[in-house]
Specification:
alpha+beta
């Protein structure tokens, strides 16, 4: 699997304001209020002048990475106040501490904060800001397009959080209705339909999942115990119970 990155990273709102005046320039949102400007051939035409211009109103990092099958290299430098402040630093040896890798070192100089010590790879700022979410320029253009309707970073972040929460709720709902493999129940789907007067559908699956969870929590249930438990379960959900 390949990964290729050649982009400028800096404050999202500032980069996007600049890109709005430049044909073909787009900015994808990252975490921690950052944005990523993919460098097209046109933008590469006079890269030092571009980095000089972009850094006059705030620091920016030029990040490059090229990997194939786990092997490759990365390069980074940081520009501030119209001049290169650090770098370029390049490496293809990633046996050292993560914080010393060029991209991580540049992100730290941009002010990126690491995740908490309990989080996996909390020293890997590359992952922290979301640089692993895209694998090439096309992916970042798609991310920029998806964020194009947002007025600013806060607007995008609020919409992104709402979408994530919606996906999490949907996943939790699916999990609640999915049968646990290998956990027996004393009633099958047809018997539950007859007992509760339900139509075929996800509610039957939820009822089976409820019985399976009772089996895990309390041990095997008799048929009578299962029927009583399902009547209580259905009543709590406002379902009409027959019989």
């Amino acid at each position: 699997m390949s990964y290729r990155l050649d982009a400028v990273v800096g404050d999202f709102d500032r980069l996007r304001s600049w890109a709005e005046e430049v044909p073909g320039a787009v900015v994808a949102p990252l975490r921690q209020r950052l944005g990523l400007l993919p460098l097209s051939d046109a933008l590469h035409a006079d890269l030092p002048s571009l980095l000089c211009e972009l850094s006059r109103s705030g620091p920016v990092a030029h990040l490059q990475a090229d990997f194939w099958g786990g092997e490759g290299d990365q390069t980074a430098d940081l520009w501030r106040a119209g001049a290169r402040e650090w770098g370029p630093v390049q490496t293809s040896d990633f046996r050292g501490p993560r914080e010393s890798w060029p991209i991580n070192a540049a992100l730290a100089r941009l002010g990126v904060a690491p995740a908490g010590p309990g989080a996996p790879d909390h020293r890997d700022l590359f992952l922290e800001v979301g640089l692993g979410h895209g694998r090439d320029e096309e992916d970042w253009h798609r991310a920029a397009l998806n964020a194009s309707a947002a007025a600013d970073y806060d607007d995008w972040h609020a919409a992104d959080q709402a979408e994530r929460e919606s996906e999490e709720r949907a996943a939790a709902e699916r999990a609640a209705h999915e049968r646990l493999p290998g956990v027996p129940v004393p009633l099958d789907g047809k018997e539950i339909i007859t007992l509760l007067g339900l139509p075929q559908g996800r509610t039957v699956g939820a009822a089976i999942r409820h019985l399976q969870q009772l089996h895990l929590d309390q041990g095997p249930q008799s048929r009578e115990e299962a029927e009583a438990a399902l009547r209580v379960w259905a009543a709590e959900r406002g379902l009409p119970v027959t019989g």
